[in-house]
Design a protein that fits this description.
Elements (H helix, E strand, L loop, with lengths): L6 E4 H4 E5 L8 E8 L2 E6 L8 E5 L8 E3 L4 E2 L3 E6 L6 H9 L17 H5 L2 E4 L2 H28 L2
Parallel strand pairs: 3-7
Antiparallel strand pairs: 1-9, 2-8, 3-4, 5-6, 5-8
Helix pairs in contact: 2-4
């Protein structure tokens, strides 16, 4: 891996950060609705249907999610429209997991992030083929961890 080909961007260069929306008037369905704590319910509408990194706007700022299918997010969670000509979406997810968003908190009572703050976050990216290779390795490790956790749960008395 050659670091001389890595390029620094602002997060706003590689994705558009969008606000989630209210879900209360939506009917029940099969599309997951994410809040900063995870899936809250399933609805009949979606905000986006391509790979996206979901970033908390309020609450637990370290709870990032990666979604590849149709989803809805509530207003405590940002979603991203990723420029996949610059960044491999799953690589962006793994990269952002390394950031300490708690240290970027701008809230007083409730931990909070803003689009202005997130848009200025610096991300350094390798060439896209390396991004994909790194993301695939990490994803494979995540899959193995999930399988082991399921096995461990089944073995508990």
């Amino acid at each position: 891996m050659s670091y001389d080909k890595w390029i620094e961007y602002k997060l706003s260069d590689v994705c558009d950060i969008k606000y989630g929306k209210d879900h209360k008037k939506l009917s029940d369905g099969i599309i997951p609705t994410y809040g900063s704590g995870g899936i809250m319910r399933y609805v009949d509408s979606y905000l986006y249907d391509k790979p996206s990194v979901l970033i908390p706007r309020k609450g637990t700022l370290s709870n990032l999610f990666y979604v590849e299918k149709k989803f809805w997010t509530v207003d405590t969670l940002f979603w991203t429209k990723i420029n996949d000509s610059i960044v491999y979406p799953k690589f962006l997810y793994y990269l952002l997991l390394t950031y300490k968003f708690e240290d970027m908190n701008v809230g007083s009572a409730v931990p909070s992030l803003t689009t202005a703050l997130l848009n200025e976050v610096k991300v350094t990216l390798p060439p896209q083929q390396e991004q994909e290779e790194i993301a695939n390795i990490l994803s494979s490790l995540d899959d193995k961890i999930e399988t082991n956790n399921k096995i461990n749960q089944q073995q508990k008395p």
